[in-house]
Amino acid sequence: MGTEEVTDLPIFCSSGTPKGTIGRLKGVLLENLIRMADVIREADNDTKHMFIVASADDGYKAVFSWQEIFNTPIGGGVMIVVEKEGLSLCEQDGRLELISMEGYYTGARYVKRLERIDIVLAE
Fold it and tell me: What share of the chain in percent tops pLDDT 90?
C-alpha cells in the first residue's frame, strides 16, 4: 500500500498539555485501508450506524464514527503508523500504532501497540 509521511507532529494530552513532538512518521491512512478491505456497506444507510474501534494490547481504545472518517478532515489524518523516527515498528516490537493527527488533542487518540481494528454496525 502507499504510505504517507508526516514530520514534526506535536502531541497534546486530553488536558491540552504538550507531551512532545514526533519527528517523523510513516504509515497508511485508515480510510484507505478500510476501502481496500471492502467493508463499506451502503445498503439501508448502514454507514450512518457504523463506527471504528482501534484497540491496543493493554485495552486502550480510540473510537471513530464512520462519518468522521469518511466525511470530515479528521479522517484524512488517521494513520496506522508503520515507521517512527525512521525505524520500522514491526521490526522493533511487532506492533503498529494508530494516531489521529487532525484532532486538537493528538494524544487522546494515539493507540500504541495496536492490536486490532474493528468495524462495528450499531443496532
Answer: 69
CA distance 123 to 118: 15
Expressed in angstroms, the distance from the first to the final Cα of the chain is 32
Query: What would the grid cell of residue 97 be?
Result: 500504532
Task: Indicate the DSSP class of residue 101.
Answer: -
CATH topology for 4-121?
A: Sulfite Oxidase; Chain A, domain 2 (3.90.420)
- pLDDT tens for 38-95 read 776 666 567 788 899 999 999 999 999 999 999 999 999 999 999 999 999 988 888 9
d(CA 38, CA 111): 23
Residue 85 contacts residue 95 (beta carbons within 8 Å): no
**Annotated domain spans of the chain:** 4-121
Distance, CA of 112 to CA of 34 (rounded, Å): 20
